[in-house]
Specification:
This protein has a domain of 42 residues. Helix 2 packs across helix 4. By secondary structure, it is mainly α. It binds prephenic acid. Prephenic acid binds next to helix 2, helix 3 and helix 4. This is Chorismate mutase.
Length: 94
């Protein structure tokens, strides 16, 4: 079996070609997602720094509930887990 067949798990050259092409698209999408997460972290930091400088707290739980609801409506229950991970990345663990 050739190396590309082995890497993709496919059993034919045709399937291996389709899988390799789709994986390239996934890698490109993941790069964009990572860039958006980093952009989200930077914007979130601006908000948190402004609130703390004004005498407020880093965390705003009512806003976090809105964010969790937004992801849950769009993606179902796993969306809540995704939003919790994003919030942890943006404001640290609480
Ligand atoms: O919207 C805010 O007030 C933020 O501070 C941003 C953010 C977020 O990353 O979405 C981060 C921390 C807060 O607890 C709530 C939400």
């Amino acid at each position: 079996m050739s190396d590309v067949l082995d890497k993709t798990g496919a059993r034919t050259d045709e399937a291996a070609g389709v899988i390799s092409g789709a994986r390239e698209r996934i890698d490109a999408i993941d790069d964009r997602i990572i860039g958006l997460v980093q952009e989200r972290m930077a914007v979130s930091a601006v908000i948190q720094e402004e609130r703390i400088a004004s005498g407020g707290r880093r965390v705003n739980l009512s806003r976090e509930m809105e964010v969790l609801g937004h992801y849950r409506e769009a993606l179902g229950k796993p969306g809540t887990s995704l939003a919790m991970t994003l919030l942890e990345l943006c404001r640290g663990r609480i």
